[in-house]
Amino acid sequence: MVEHPRVVRIKALLEARAWYDLRRELADQHPADLAELIGFFADEEEAVLFRLLGRRKGEVFAYLSADQQRRILRNTEPEQLARMIGQMTPDDRTRILGELPPPVAHALLGRLPPSEMKNSLVLLGYPENTAGRYMTPDYVTLRPEMTAGEASPTSAASAAGRKR
Question: What is the pTM of this model?
Fold first, then answer.
């Protein structure tokens, strides 16, 4: 099987332990693309790549397969796991917390900032497998009389204010 050139390049950087170049290679990619890319690597390489994501771990984690997520959860230190959970969007965080054993989920909730903890607890209060459990508490309010030209900057400003 022929490997994708990006996978070959990243494997070479991993073997050379070229961490700076590797971080730069990963920096400009969309989280979904990174999650797919990580899937081409063995467990040890996957763990290294995931650690190199820095603040983007939470975003990328949401796109990983369930098996990859379980592997990473098992092999991640509690402090690092808490930071990663804190970087996720509220709906992604709720999904992950709902899958964890209750003592682990409670410990992670306790490490979140108060406003994020409140959002998570509200969403976790909805029954499993319902829309309420997975909705995002982030929304944009638009007036009915607004034109598309007026609504676009309003929604863009709202999204920019919520970026993590």
Answer: 0.62
